[in-house]
Specification:
By secondary structure, the protein is of the alpha/beta class. Among the domains are: 389 residues, TIM Barrel, CATH 3.20.20.210; 73 residues, no CATH class. It is 42% helix and 13% strand. It contains 28 helices and 24 strands. The strands form seven sheets. It has an eight-stranded parallel beta sheet. Strands 19-20-21-22-23-24 form a six-stranded parallel beta sheet. Helix 11 links the parallel strand 12 and strand 13. Helix 24 packs parallel to helix 25. The chain is globular, with a radius of gyration of 27 Å. The structure holds methionine and zinc ion. The site of zinc ion has 6 residues, from loops.
């Protein structure tokens, strides 16, 4: 009996970022609509072929997207707000208009809201439903792509976002505030059936229907929606393909009753993330239902340990029989880089640790073959040797680092708390001589093309270290002078030497590896290349002291040292899977603690440790795991920042998501700056009204060149002061200025400082 192998989705960006180049080329008018369409077609053909050549049995289609697959699905079902629909744009233009906004030839529409895809770094465009949404099929993308693959000789299994997930991940439009999207289910289902019938008519025998919301906490109504939806589909079974319902990124156990008894052909579960759910999910399977065992990690870059994967699948087989089991990737491979073969610069020993999407195809195939009794002993032996080598590698373990982490948890350890409570620190920090309503910025100043050019030249070796260094110094001179002229109180050095806020640190720490081509889609044409944590992390030498000290030497005002926090370094990298996330965060926190201490020694009195990603690491479901996360994430921050004198002022910074107040309080930073300008009400800050530490609320949006007039700043500050004490309040932008130009930066900050000074004068009267 041959057990089949299956892939839930393949990256669509192309091995060399072909999709980005073509899409941006089209946006800039450099290539035509048809040429863009052609590039998409080539990428799909390439992906299908590599999967087929690798021997994958169940190959997906409709996993491709020119922007975002959730947005494709919304558009396909006519979930298109009127403000976009009214322009009658060509399909891809509509997709881009909704994804990123459009301002051209009498069209002026903002982008739709974009949100994080579960706990990944991918972002999807949020479906927007309204009372006037009329579901209907507006196109035939899934059918077209199915036929396209068929014409190439590949029978595929189309992937579609399921109806319950589509509704639950969406929101209601401004004009329909009271609408709960899930109540639209009955209207939506017939259109799904229409699509499924078309796929069936085109020859699709099976469809993968993704319901990832099953790993979230779901309201009763949403749980019940599964029965409604899938029983409706079953009524049309004669004219639609068979359905495999797929979930990933967590356990479905708390929602088991929502899927028990659903009349589908089978289910897919993520056993990389949640192997412990096996018994429970098996208990709800019907006698004939298939079990797709997600065992090759779709979220990380590590080579799978094939013998454990095989052992796990065998366990599943014991429970349900080989004829009902399929070997699969845990999720779509969208979240992994495309092909390790393109990494020419990685040290061979390190390269052997990894498996990117293309390599993962082999892994599912080998596991399926092994289970089916085929001889894959050579592959297994090579794999076992790699796994063993990694464990033994000098890159992996550093006993000293591990000892030091243990000391954090030792009895009586004070590594995670400041010497004194906030009131004493506040007193000690009076020597900084800061005025009421102190003004500051978040760290970066415009990263001009000149800065990027010089950095590239330095990396390539075309300019000397000395020339680069004096260039960086001249940039620092310039931003210090600028900040003094604008009248800011706590200055920054501007971060001109940093390519990226995580990579910059990773490159100076042990335990990190970097790829040259390991791109992963974050949203649209924005791809990221996360560093990979490969071993115990330590800091061989100071990382930021030189620049901070130089900046401080140019001014009498305090200059903030600027570091990226432990949790953000962890979240924006591919983490290790052989040790816990807590352990990795604590290792990072100790490395940063040493840096903080060196900064203090060098005379830096204010130090900011940024944690913009701390919120996104929050486990998807409420419960123990989440409670633990709160604890260790806050503890890591405190370990990094608490080794200083009372008189050293610790800042932190948060942006991107809504932060819960108890979490921020647990960090015990002296000052935190929080993105705030897009908040419509001051409700949120009320929760901090009795919090003694100080807070700076972002007063303008750094993503926009718009310059708010002074009165607007004043109005915002006045609103905030209605609920928040003036003596605790700092004045700053939402985040760093690195994506802005100098022109608007100057005007924005000048107006901000003018408003602060006005309040200062009033309150010191
Ligand atoms: C995404 S948070 C960025 C903080 C960093 N210090 C900056 O100003 O760019
Ligand atoms: Zn920020």
């Amino acid at each position: 009996m041959a057990v089949e192998s299956s892939v839930l989705g393949f990256p669509r960006i192309g091995a060399l970022r072909e999709l980005k180049k073509a899409t941006e080329g089209y946006w800039n008018g450099k290539i035509s609509y048809d040429d863009l369409v052609k590039v998409g077609k080539e990428i799909r053909a390439h992906n299908w072929k590599s999967q087929k050549d690798a021997g994958v049995d169940i190959v997906p289609s409709n996993d491709f997207s020119f922007y975002d697959h959730v947005l494709d699905t919304s558009i396909l079902f006519n979930v298109i707000p009127e403000r976009y629909a009214k322009y009658n744009l060509a399909p891809l233009d509509l997709l881009f208009a909704m994804g990123r906004g459009l301002q051209k030839d009498n069209v002026d529409v903002p982008a739709c809201e974009m949100v994080k895809w579960f706990d990944s770094n991918y972002h999807y465009v949020r479906p927007t439903f309204s009372n006037s949404t009329e579901f209907k099929l507006t196109g035939s993308k899934p059918v077209d792509e199915f036929l396209e693959a068929k014409a190439l000789g590949v029978q595929t299994r189309p992937v579609i976002v399921g109806p319950v997930s589509l509704l639950f991940l969406g929101k209601s439009d401004k004009d329909s505030i009271d609408l709960e999207p899930i109540t639209l289910l009955q209207k939506l289902l017939p259109v799904y059936v229409e699509l499924l019938s078309k796929l069936f008519a085109a020859g699709a025998t099976e469809v993968q229907i993704d319901e990832p919301v099953l790993v979230l906490d779901l309201p009763e109504k949403v749980q019940a929606a599964f029965k409604t939806a899938y029983e409706f589909f079953a009524k049309h079974q004669a004219s639609i393909p068979q359905l495999t319902l797929a979930t990933y990124f967590g356990t479905v156990v708390p929602n088991l009753k929502a899927i028990a008894g659903l009349p589908v052909k089978g289910f897919h579960f993520d056993f990389v993330r949640s192997p412990e759910q096996l018994d429970d999910v098996v208990s709800i399977l019907g006698d004939k239902q298939t079990l797709s065992v997600g065992i090759v990690d779709g979220r990380n870059v590590w080579k799978a340990d094939l013998s454990s994967a095989i052992a796990f699948v065998e366990k599943a087989i014991k429970k349900v029989g080989a004829e009902r089991v399929i070997v699969a990737t845990s999720s779509s491979l969208l979240h992994t880089p495309v092909d390790l073969a393109n990494e020419k610069k990685l040290d061979a020993e390190i390269k052997d640790f990894f498996s990117f999407a293309t390599q993962k195809l082999q892994e599912v195939v080998v596991v399926a073959k092994a289970i089916s009794g085929k001889d894959v002993s050579a592959e297994l032996a090579t794999n076992a040797a790699s796994i063993k080598a990694r464990i033994a590698s000098k890159y992996t373990t550093d006993a000293k680092v591990q000892e030091r982490v243990k000391s954090i948890d030792a009895e009586g350890s004070k590594l995670d708390s400041r010497i004194s409570g906030f009131p004493n620190r506040l007193e000690a920090q009076k020597s900084l001589n800061l005025p009421l309503f102190p003004t500051t910025t978040i760290g970066s100043f415009p990263q001009t093309s000149e800065i990027r050019k010089k950095r590239n030249a330095f990396t390539k070796g075309t300019i000397s270290a000395q020339e680069y260094e004096s260039f960086i110094e001249s940039e620092i001179d310039m931003v210090i002078k600028f900040q003094e002229e604008v009248g800011l109180d706590v200055l920054v050095h501007g971060e001109p030497e940093r390519n990226d806020m995580v990579q910059y640190f990773g490159e100076q720490l042990t335990g990190f590896a970097f790829t040259s081509n390991g791109w992963v889609q974050s949203y649209g044409t924005r791809y990221v290349r996360p560093p990979i944590i490969i071993g115990d992390v330590s800091r061989p030498k100071a990382m930021t002291v030189k620049e901070s000290v130089y900046a401080q030497s140019r001014t009498q005002k305090p200059v903030k040292g600027m570091l990226t926090g432990p949790v953000t370094c962890l979240r924006w990298s591919f983490p290790r899977v052989d040790v816990s996330q807590r352990e990795q965060a604590l290792q990072l926190s100790l490395a940063l603690r040493d840096e903080v201490s060196d900064l203090q020694k060098a005379g830096i009195r204010v130090i900011q440790v940024d944690e913009p990603a701390i919120r996104e690491g929050l486990p998807l479901r409420a419960g123990q795991e989440r409670a633990n996360y709160y604890k260790w994430a806050a503890q890591s921050f405190r370990v990094a920042t608490s080794g200083v004198e009372d008189s050293t002022q610790i800042h932190s910074h948060f942006c991107y998501s809504d932060f819960d107040s108890s979490f921020i309080k647990a960090l015990d930073a002296d000052v935190v700056s929080i993105e705030f300008s897009k908040k419509e009400s001051t409700e949120y800050i009320k929760e901090f009204s009795t919090y003694p530490n100080h807070i700076g609320l972002g007063l303008f949006d750094i993503h926009s060149p718009r310059v708010p007039p002074v009165e607007e700043f004043e109005r915002r500050i006045a609103d905030i002061l209605k609920v928040y004490p003036a003596e605790n309040f700092w004045v700053n932008p939402d985040c760093g200025m690195k994506t802005r130009g100098w022109e608007e930066t100057t005007k924005q900050l000048t107006n901000m400082v003018t408003a602060a000074k006005k309040f200062r004068a009033e309150y010191t009267k």
